[in-house]
Design goal:
alpha+beta, Trna Endonuclease, Chain: A, domain 1, 5-stranded mixed sheet, two-stranded antiparallel sheet, 7 strands
């Protein structure tokens, strides 16, 4: 057996790898995951809690991302950063970012024209905002 190098994987392989990794983390919180073949209602996978009542539609990303096409879809976004995984309600965190970081995201051409905004690197301020969403 030889470990793979994440950087040598193609994008589909990286998505599968990340799904497996976050599924293991979510299991610690009582969730079982179901990978979807198609982005069903914007979700890459469903996380079902052992309580039998909680279901999360989750979009897997490689970084902190907001996208206008996800608004109103009751989606959670999950992404890795350094040694942590983050899971957040897209619309709730988007509203928080729009209030706290007024203008930073809204004024960009990426947000205004494409309807999407993401961060390659997270500042201390952003990490502090995300603290409660660490898995």
């Amino acid at each position: 057996m030889k470990k793979i190098k994440y950087t040598e994987l193609n994008s589909k392989q990286k998505e599968t790898y990340n799904f497996q990794k976050v599924s293991a983390v979510l299991a610690d919180y009582g969730f079982a995951t179901i990978k979807l073949n198609d982005d069903w209602q914007g979700a890459d996978f469903i996380a079902q809690h052992i309580d039998g009542e909680t279901y999360l539609k989750v979009q897997l990303k490689s970084r902190l991302t907001f996208d206008k096409k996800y608004i109103g879809k009751n989606l959670f976004i999950c992404f890795p950063y350094k040694s942590h995984w983050f899971l957040y309600d897209h619309d709730k965190l988007l509203n928080l970012f729009l209030i706290r970081n007024s203008g930073q995201m809204e004024g960009t051409s990426s947000w205004k024209e494409k309807g999407i905004y993401s961060w390659n690197s997270l500042s201390t301020e952003v990490l502090n905002t995300l603290e409660e969403f660490i898995l």
